[in-house]
Amino acid sequence: MGFHSENDRKGPGAAKCKVLSTDHKVRHLLPSWQDLEVLESVNKALSPLQDFRDALSGESYVSISCEKPALHLLNTPVLAEDEADTELTKSLKSKILSYLNDKYEGIQDLLNFTTFLDPRFRTQHISEEETQILKERAISELIEIHGQQSVAQSPAVMENNSIDVESPPAVKAKKKTLASFFKETTCTTPRAPLSSTFDSMAQLREAVASEFNVYIYMPCVD
User: What global pTM score does this model have?
Assistant: First the structure.
């Protein structure tokens, strides 16, 4: 009846076969060698995904920067076709990869940017052309943030000055700190010429670009 074939004595279904074969009432539940072959093929295709599922579903840490490296691993060693794979295993692997690649195709820009900003990966899974685009985007966003912070600080400085004019200073003078001698007094500094503003922006951009070059070529973080 095929209950004691070589496949029945080995593999993940061996224990199940042994238990069921001792009870005549459940003999009909004993899997055939075809059933075991299907189970083994499915197990070989799906079992590597369990660790990825558990690692990427954490709620106490950010995992989006790991999505692109994880996809790279799935496409190369984890779900790559093996000569020993059955046709069912190959088909399952192919369909899983096709689904995952299609699912994340629409957010590649986000995945690239978050991976680029993660010091564990940086440009490891990103092409040279994409790296240059990401670098320019990061520089532009940092300069924009710097400009927004400067604009936000200006009203606060003017408000503090108006309060100081209306209210007399405290009788007890505060002790000056070393940092106070180097603090930039933007309220008393005359407006810089337009060319100077352009020069400062160019210097800022050059400084940020230099920082990113250092960041890109730093040793990998464990």
Answer: 0.60
